[in-house]
Structures are given as C-alpha cells and as structure tokens.
Amino acid sequence: MTAETSQTLDRGLRVLKLLADTDHGLTVTELSNKLGVNRTVVYRLLATLEQHALVRRDLGGRARVGLGVLRLGRQVHPLVREAALPALRSLAEDIGATAHLTLVDGSDALAVAVVEPTWTDYHVAYRAGFRHPLDRGAAGRAILAARRKPVGETAFTLTHGELEAGASGAAAALVGVTGVEGSVGVVMLADSVPERVGPRVVDAAREVADALR
User: Fold this and answer.
1) C-alpha span between 114 and 92 (Å, rounded)
2) Where does the IclR-ED domain start and stop, copy by copy (predicted)?
C-alpha cells in the first residue's frame, strides 16, 4: 500500500475478488482468515458492500457476490465495444463478411458490436443486441470450447446453419482478458467457411484481447 491508496477500498475489492472466485460463498471467518484482518473489519466491509448490492448474505451467513455486480458489468459493454471496433472493421473488410464481438450474458451469447463489410454485394444481417444460447452458433461454441482448453490456448470454431439457414460462422474466444468472457467471429452466406477465415478470426480475437488488456 502507498500513501495515495485506500486500505479500506483495497480490502473491499479483495472481498469481491474472493467471493467471485467461489460458487458456494464464504463466511465471515473464512474471509477474515483470507484477508488477514479481524472479523469486525469484515463485518463492516460486507455491510457497506451490501448497501450497494455488490454482496448478499444467505440465511446461513455465507456472503456471495450480489446482483449489483451485474449492473456494473453491463456498463463495461460500451467500453469493450469501442476497443474492439478497429479489429472488427479490419476483419470484416478483409474477409468480406459480417464481423462481431460476442460476450457471455448469463447462459446466452450476446452480440455487443457488429461491423459489416463495405464492398460486398450482400452479407448477413447481424445486429448488436442479438442473443442466442451459448451452445448454438460459432460465437457461443467458441466460448464454451475455450472453457475446456488450457489457459492461453486459442483455436477457432466453425458452424453451419445453426442460427440462420444457409449461413456459416467462424469464431475464436478472447483469451487472457480478466473479467471479460467472449469471442470474435464472422458470419457469411456460404455452405462452408474458406480455409483462411479461421486463422484470420483467431488473429482478430488476439488483437481485441490485446486492446482490452
């Protein structure tokens, strides 16, 4: 800690990180041990975080991340979209297909940024705000595949006709971006995806990930 930082805020943020890393919540005693502070300090931190809906406590006294965190998370979308647009524009123009950035939203894949190519006679209409189950379409499947791969490993996913008849998709997950789970991909009217598209999508996903770090 330096003179310019807040010890209380630091501890509160550490509480949120600890709770975010567990599915079953933590007790006051467990948080006290992990933070290295007494229980009174933990009670005060939790009470303050509860006031802002960032933490909730169940009947058994276990603290968990609150719904307020989701509201904060939604405000991240515009920032992520802005950072991703240059790579998406380059991808759309290079491939001649609609490029998109998709983020996880609950059990769905949510398109938060879409760029259409300027030089093609036709392309797939794909709009920001479009959502679909994670287990359908290249964007969602790429995210699910990344969850099963070793940390840092990137690969592309191909699909055909899962979201729109006659349309094929290619997507690669964002890797190494703390707090953001998503993918970059393209969708095109084709029976199959040309060979060069998969590696190009992986490159674009890396560009976006670099922009977000």
Assistant:
1) 9
2) 68-213
DSSP code of 187? E
Q: What is the pLDDT of residue 112?
A: 92
pLDDT along the chain (213 residues), means of 10: 76 92 91 96 95 92 87 77 95 98 90 95 89 95 92 89 94 89 96 96 96 88
Confidence (pLDDT) at 2: 59
Distances (CA, A) of 100 to 30, 76, 85, 187: 42, 17, 9, 8
Q: How far is CA 138 from the centre of its chain?
A: 15
The reported pLDDT for the residue numbered 157 is: 97
Give the global pTM.
0.71
Question: What is the separation, in whole angstroms, between the first and last Cα of the chain?
Answer: 23
| 80: amino acid identity, one letter | V
Residue 76's alpha-carbon distances to 42, 68, 103, 179, in angstroms, are: 28, 13, 11, 10
Q: How far is CA 114 from CA 43, 107, 173, 193, 199, in A?
A: 44, 20, 16, 19, 19
Amino acid found at 175: V
Quote the longest CA-to-CA distance of the chain. Answer: 66
Query: What is the model's pLDDT at position 116?
Result: 96
Q: Where are the alpha helices (DSSP H) in the chain?
A: 7-20, 28-35, 39-51, 68-74, 76-95, 138-148, 197-212
Q: What's the rounded Cα separation, in Å, for the pair 42 and 45? A: 5
